[in-house]
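ugh finaly. both done.
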Amino acid sequence: MNMRVILSVLILLCSLPLFAVEQFSVLFVNPSVKAEPFWQKVTAVMQAAATHSNVRLDIIYGGGNRHIQLEELRHYLKYNATPDYVVLINYPGGAEQSMNLLESHKIKFITLEETILGAERQQIGKPSEHFKYWLAEVYHDNFEAGIQLGKALFDNAKQAKQEPKFVAINGHYGTESDTRSNGLSHYLRTQHVELEQVVYANWNKTEATEKVRRLLHRYPQTNVIWCASDLMALGALDAVKEKSGKRYFIGGIDWLDDNLRLIEQGRLTASVGGHFMMGAWALISLVDHHNGHPYLQTHHEIKFKLGVITNQNVTSYHWLSDITDWSVIPFDAFLLRNTRNAEYRFDFDTLQTLLTEKPALH
């Protein structure tokens, strides 16, 4: 082999991603629709992580419905090459069907968010217990998220020398949203504050606006509106625009860009978030697993922390809004095979440090 050929091979090797020895395929089952802002961001970050790590990523959409999601998954597996891995969220009432389908195709999979509890959870068990191809759950603590948001809203009302009067707008009748509102209820009991009422708005901005209007009519003393998502917090904000001369403390969960801007403007109070990274976190663990790291053989849960943004710290998170290309994230810095860490450090302190050390975001 002459020197020119050797140099060509070395250049090619250096141009490959540092940590992806072998390309593999992942199917991401987005549980929502393409236009939904939060899941749009989850998908965008996951796509950047896949490109960075030489992973072939396909995406299908569940349409916000367990029946649609199951049919879309069946259709994909029938007419496409079998992926090496699947990443999905289990819908309550549909978990066992989806997981049986993946097991029948012998596809290893990771689930996002801890969405199944109670009797259904006993049926499916834990990862690798009843479903041997179920590698792990990647999730955050929704109960703690409800507490975090409740505390931020409570503290801001107190700082404004107002007595907090709470109502809550939940997502749907399901584990994820109920766990969040249960966290709120727990926190308010520790503060001896009554939660007037919890209503459901199905993660919908327009429905949240209408529900808040009714609640404000029923409980005119309300000044704090806790929302299980940022989109519904925007709906709540639309409802209180009709109430001039009164200050409301409104917050949600998701860290949507619009909400962070409104927090900085003082029109919204708080947002809890960081879980838009969960698809990328799952993919990073799969890169380690596929390339021989033993972590997922002995660890079947990857739990990460969320953060709280209020007007007191929102300027520290400007980098979130500055990112238009998620490939600026150094995903390889989180791989266990590239560090001496025994556990994944999927937290925003680490991510913020890595990103703000860069000379510029683009």
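ok and the 2nd:
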Amino acid sequence: MTQSTDAGPSGGFAAEFKDAVTIRAALLVLGVLALQLAFIASYVGAFHQPRPREIPLAVTAPVPGVAEQSVRQLRTLPGTPLDPRAVPDEAAALRQIEHRDADGALVIDPGGTTDRLLVASGAGASLSQALEQVVRLAEESQGRSLQVVDAVPAAAGDARGLTSFYLVVGWCVGGYLCAAILAVSAGARPANTTRAAIRLGVLLLYAVVAGLFGALIAGPVLDALPGGTAALWGLGTLVVLAVGALTLACQGLAGVVGIGLAILLVVVLGNPSSGGAYPYPLLPPFWSAIGPALPPGAGTYAARSIAYFHGNGAAGPVLVLAAWAVVGAAVTLACAAVRKGRPGAAVGSGPPDGAGRPETGADDDRAPAAGR
């Protein structure tokens, strides 16, 4: 009889399973499960019960003392949904909205029973609607009615003011996917500072292209977002570069696991806290606190500022993005410098005959066999 020539491992299913699923693979699968559960918990936790908290509101009236009295009354509303402040006149109230110092303004008419509420749906329709609901209830409790005026309306193609958020999410996805692909193709950790610098250079070129095409699609192509294309292009370049540099830095510190860390920061923590679906005053305290410090939140706020508020309020978020880009690049280079004793192949050289490429997803750049 002819005996089996099967070269596979013997010992039944248990041995086959042990050979097919390594400990490293099992740990990575558990890490993916943890990310998935964190994703669910973060989005449901941030969005399941939006409630207004300290929405900045300018209050004005032509008669001295009326605005101040209204401010005192509004501050006593249950749950502190508003953060009212008196301003001299309606022009000052409009400036507060345009400079993003207030999300709305209440203009009181002491001689009548109807007041006006100025809102800015360009900053998010959910926020303007929540503000209208709170102020309307407060007005009705005083026997007064309310007329709502959208001082900064969202563009016709910008449904509920969400285009800025979706645009920034797309830029963020491109940033960490570009960095992840560099890791998959040549190892998560660059073997030396030269290779790290090359990766950062490739990322910069990608960021410039991605920023441009994102701005063109959202602006001139689909007419979904107003504002200058050049300004949005610059913002998009910075968002992609910041997220990509963050991902490269995480990979430099933790290898292929760093991709998961970047997703944790950008997707699990960054997206629900970005103020896109629900602006900061509608989010729970934890999410509204971390949102401005993470790339999705900084990018979304800056994009809305560029599109609807003439760039007012964008300086702080742009600095946040620049900090992520600079720190991410510095950490990437520093991690590569620490590994300088393990050089890779010369830049641009391919593997010699008989020397294969490193396994996809390896933790570092590998030198050719002759260089070991």
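summary for the 2nd one i guess: The two ends are 48 Å apart (CA to CA).
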